[in-house]
């Protein structure tokens, strides 16, 4: 692998490139599912190839190949250089990169149990046990369970330096209360930690009970979001608008652009003073889907303040966009879905830092409100400013006590007004680093996993209503 990556660099330089990156990736994925007491899908796939990104005559070029032979690598490197030279014919200015050091390093994500060593039959048996528990509850008409494992082995080299990366596993299932399951950079031990069978009956009972629950009332109320829903709120109303390529107008697919124009940096009161948000790719932050040692430009993963005491203080940057706004260094957020895609600015672990106190104490301190749990739907405009979210379930809060169950609850607002209404955040003991595995960006689309840590939090005087009617 190293010899082929180095060959790509040498060939591109000989063809006229002033800067070269080469990534070789080997990705294996296994997906298993059951439905109503029967195995549904068992898929095993592998993708192996090389991508070359270059700067020539002041412009970018990219090419990829799955023909990992000297001739195949030479062809891809030469093609990337030709594309850069063609792009230079219509460039507005030369590409400039923020400086970075050279690194030679290896990083492997923690993995106690390699999920690919666990027999498929054992995984299906566990899913069928979960499925059976769900269907024991009268009224359940559809029971599904899924797991998704992924291992990524990557070698990255550039004409600046070199780095190697190995190891990432993702697990998917229908519990706990997050974006269809929990996703982390761990091994099969995550499955064992989740107590799937033990929680199946409760989840099924709540699903049945929702049929008889009251509709969420319409109006304005104080609301409490559970940690997983708040994680998605961070993703949509903080994570996407801080991507600097969206701000500069070089990326607008899927999530649109951003209201966070450059003059707002360091000046905008994004949220109330108790709100602190970081973009943290370092392993110390946790085993998130946005955790890594180096990004796909060879820049170390970093912890970057985004919102400090409510003030907007940071973007997600690349070497090119950091230089474009006069910053000395990229904060290391460039990632590509695979060897045949260019890296883009992507969220790392964009997390709301915890406050203090328990959920029980927060509910007790709320006289009239609604508790929202488990995302069901979301909508936000292409500047990431006006939004509406629906959750699977809600509970009315009256005089400090959680009372009746509510179905089809939704809430909405304007990003900065909403975050400035936050007046309480629960403590570290309730903080969870949730994983969102399917963030889409770019054209052709790239799907990337991101992480979002959050504890439950309260927001005052928020518009609430019914997301779905029967």
Topology:
Layout: H1 2-14, E1 19-35, E2 38-56, E3 59-65, H2 70-87, E4 106-108, H3 120-135, E5 144-158, E6 162-166, H4 189-193, H5 196-209, E7 214-215, E8 219-225, H6 227-239, H7 244-248, E9 277-280, E10 303-308, E11 311-312, H8 319-324, E12 334-335, E13 344-345, E14 350-352, H9 359-364, E15 368-380, E16 386-398, E17 401-407, E18 409-414, H10 415-420, E19 422-425, E20 432-441, E21 446-454, E22 457-466
Parallel strand pairs: 4-6, 7-17, 8-15
Antiparallel strand pairs: 1-2, 1-5, 2-3, 5-6, 8-22, 9-10, 9-14, 10-11, 12-13, 15-16, 16-17, 16-18, 18-22, 19-22, 20-21
Helix pairs in contact: 1-2, 3-5
Quick rundown:
This protein has helices spanning 2-14, 70-87, 120-135, 189-193, 196-209, 227-239, 244-248, 319-324, 359-364, 415-420, and strands spanning 19-35, 38-56, 59-65, 106-108, 144-158, 162-166, 214-215, 219-225, 277-280, 303-308, 311-312, 334-335, 344-345, 350-352, 368-380, 386-398, 401-407, 409-414, 422-425, 432-441, 446-454, 457-466. It is of the alpha+beta class.
Descriptive account of the structure:
With 470 residues, the protein is of the alpha+beta class. It folds into two domains: 2-209, 2-Layer Sandwich (PmbA/TldD fold); 213-466, no CATH class. 22% of the residues lie in helices and 35% in strands. It is built from ten helices and 22 strands. The protein has helices at residues 2-14, 70-87, 120-135, 189-193, 196-209, 227-239, 244-248, 319-324, 359-364, 415-420; strands at residues 19-35, 38-56, 59-65, 106-108, 144-158, 162-166, 214-215, 219-225, 277-280, 303-308, 311-312, 334-335, 344-345, 350-352, 368-380, 386-398, 401-407, 409-414, 422-425, 432-441, 446-454, 457-466. The strands form five sheets. It has a six-stranded mixed beta sheet with strand order 3-2-1-5-6-4. A five-stranded mixed barrel has the order 8-15-16-18-22. β12 and β13 form a beta hairpin. α1 (2-14) crosses α2 and α3 (120-135) runs parallel beside α5 (196-209). The longest helix has 18 residues, at 70-87. Residues 162-174 have low confidence and may be disordered.
């Amino acid at each position: 692998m190293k010899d082929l990556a180095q060959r790509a660099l040498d060939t591109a330089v000989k063809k006229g490139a002033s800067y070269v990156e080469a990534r070789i990736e080997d990705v294996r994925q296994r997906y298993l599912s059951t439905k109503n007491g029967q195995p549904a899908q068992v898929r095993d796939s592998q993708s192996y190839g090389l991508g070359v990104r270059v700067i020539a005559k002041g412009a970018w070029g990219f090419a990829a190949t799955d023909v990992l032979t000297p001739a195949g690598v030479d062809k891809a490197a030469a093609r990337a250089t030709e594309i850069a030279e063609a792009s230079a014919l219509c460039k507005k200015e030369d590409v400039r990169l923020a400086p970075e050091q050279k690194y030679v390093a290896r990083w492997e994500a923690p993995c106690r149990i390699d999920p690919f060593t666990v027999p498929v039959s054992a995984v299906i048996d566990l899913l069928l046990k979960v499925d059976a528990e769900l269907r024991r509850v009268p009224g359940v008409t559809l029971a599904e369970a899924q797991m998704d494992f992924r291992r990524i082995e990557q070698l990255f080299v550039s004409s600046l330096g070199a780095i190697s990366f190995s190891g990432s596993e993702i697990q998917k299932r229908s519990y706990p209360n997050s974006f269809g399951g929990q996703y982390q950079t761990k091994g099969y031990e995550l499955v064992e930690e989740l107590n799937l069978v033990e929680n199946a009956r409760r989840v099924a009972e709540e699903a049945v009970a929702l049929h008889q629950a009251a509709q969420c009332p319409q109006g304005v109320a104080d609301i409490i979001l559970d940690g997983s829903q708040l994680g998605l709120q961070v993703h949509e109303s903080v994570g996407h608008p801080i991507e600097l390529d969206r701000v500069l107008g070089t990326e607008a697919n899927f999530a649109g652009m951003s209201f966070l124009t450059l003059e707002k940096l360091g000046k905008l009161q994004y949220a109330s003073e108790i709100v602190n948000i970081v973009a943290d790719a370092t392993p110390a932050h946790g085993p998130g889907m946005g955790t890594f040692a180096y990004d796909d430009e060879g820049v170390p993963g970093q912890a970057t303040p985004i919102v400090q005491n409510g003030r907007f203080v940071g973007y997600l940057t690349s070497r090119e966009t950091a230089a474009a706004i006069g910053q000395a260094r990229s904060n290391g957020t460039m990632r590509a879905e695979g060897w045949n895609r260019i890296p883009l600015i992507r969220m790392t672990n964009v997390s709301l830092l915890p406050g203090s106190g328990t959920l029980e104490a927060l509910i007790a301190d709320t006289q009239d409100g609604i508790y929202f749990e488990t995302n069901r739907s979301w909508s936000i405009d292409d500047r990431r400013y006006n939004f509406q979210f629906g959750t699977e379930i809600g509970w009315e809060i009256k005089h400090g006590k959680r009372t009746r169950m509510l179905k089809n609850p939704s809430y909405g607002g304007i990003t900065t007004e909403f975050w400035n209404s936050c007046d309480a955040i629960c403590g570290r003991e309730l903080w969870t680093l949730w994983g969102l595995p399917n963030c889409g960006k770019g054209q052709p689309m790239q799907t990337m996993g991101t992480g979002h840590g959050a504890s439950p939090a309260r927001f005052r005087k928020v518009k609430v209503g019914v997301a779905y009617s029967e």
